[in-house]
Amino acid sequence: MIQMSRPTFGPEEESAVLAVLRSGHFAQGERVREFERAFAMSTGAEYAVATSSGTAALFLALRGHGVGPGDEVITSPMTFIATANAIVHAGAVPVFADVDVSLGLSVPAVARLIGPRTRAVVPVHLHGNPCDLSPLIELAARHGVAVIQDACQAVGAEVGGRPLGSHGTAVYSFYATKNLTTGEGGMVTSNDPQVADLCAALRHQAYAGPGYVHDRVGYNFRMTEMQAAIGLVQLGRLSAITERRRRIASFYDEAIGGDQFTRPATVPDACHVYHQYTLRLTAVDGGAREERDGIRASLAQAGVGTGVYYPVPVHRQPAYERYARSRCPDAERASDDMFSIPVHHALSDAEVETVAQAVAAL
Ligand SMILES: Cc1ncc(COP(=O)(O)O)c(C=O)c1O
Q1: Is-contact 64 169, C-beta < 8 A?
Q2: How big, in percent rounded to 5, are the helix, strand and coil portions of the chain?
Q3: Which tens digit of pLDDT belongs to each residue from 54-86?
Q4: 283 C-alpha to ligand 1 centroid (Å)
């Protein structure tokens, strides 16, 4: 079976970890700082704060922007549930706005939901496909609302010809299946020194200086030196990883033609990093989920793994029933009619051909 992801570490990661093990310094230290500096530079941001996960990074970024009890945060229901969980953990209420044809947040839907309690908007660059940030940033600025990008699936992506981090605060995940992985791990990037400082302090129990002085109630969201050592190696490979994924995606664009499928729209001037390559069934009148699941079963028979990211939009999750204020029909439709095929950078050319032929033969 050709799987949806195949995390691969090579001899460089092995020797980087071995060097840490032999150094005697395991917890957040010099390698974490080096990873932060290199990551900030590669994502076009001024500051970077490494964390234990993407969820922790998002929670810290929300807190760093002052989000707390009594606030509302507008986000997409078409995301991994961690996006909404971080908002709830920060004490705020998630408000779900529908998606557009890119599967990113619909700006008119956000405009309809912005109110006096809105403190932040969290666009999600789903599948590595960047949202149209400019209109969203303009809308948020008019209302004095922060934009915190959930770039957990979009390391290396660009929009408007610039990396995501140059547009404002963003958070990333380095979970095992991500384009850049440290096993588990995350990062906040920001161009606001106050946001970065608060995230860095809260990550480490709000340690305020020598003598164990703590001026706030903080957390332990630190990254280890082992994770940072792997991250540094992976970061050095990121452009090759992105290039490989984009090349496979262009091959699929050509090879999987016909009228059967559409793809989520991409913003002009964007660099989609293809964390997932997603297809949507064209024009199904009802029963899309059954038809989609039938296609997935046929592909499994042909030895091609597939995934659906995500089959239950967050506002339809049992855990989020009490937050579901409005319907999000476009997100619901996408959860019925989309599926993703393997696009990861460890695929061989022969595997890519097998996937494309299996889909084209449907
Ligand atoms: C869109 C999105 N947000 C948040 C997260 C949370 O990241 P992590 O699993 O590193 O906590 C993920 C990771 O899967 C994600 O895909």
Answers
A1: yes
A2: 45, 15, 40
A3: 999 999 999 999 999 999 999 999 999 999 999
A4: 31
Known catalytic residue at 178: yes
**Ligand 1 centroid to residue 62 C-alpha, Å:** 15
Nearest CA to ligand 1 atom 7: 54
Active-site residue identified among 119, 125, 127, 178 = 178
Q: Work out the average pLDDT over 131-148.
A: 98
Quote the ligand 1 centre to 257 CA distance (angstroms): 31
The DSSP string of 165-196 is GGGS-EEEE-BTTSSS--BS-EEEEES-HHHH
The conformational region for residue 205 under phi > 0 = left, psi -120 to 50 = alpha, else beta, is left
Q: What residues flank ligand 1, with Cβ below 6 Å?
A: 53-55, 79-80, 82-83, 124, 150, 152-153, 173, 175, 186
* Cα distances (angstroms) measured from residue 61 to each of 185, 190, 194, 200, 216: 15, 9, 11, 10, 16
Give backbone dihedrals phi and psi of 228, rounded to 5 degrees, phi first.
Answer: -65, -35
Model confidence, pTM? 0.98
Q: From the CA of 184, give the closest atom in ligand 1.
A: 10
Q: Hey, what amino acid is at 287?
A: G
Phi then psi dihedrals of residue 350, to 5 deg: -65, -40
Report pLDDT digits (tens) over 243-279. Answer: 999 999 999 999 998 789 999 999 999 999 999 999 9
3-state secondary structure of 350: helix
- The encoded tokens of residue 106 equal 């619909």
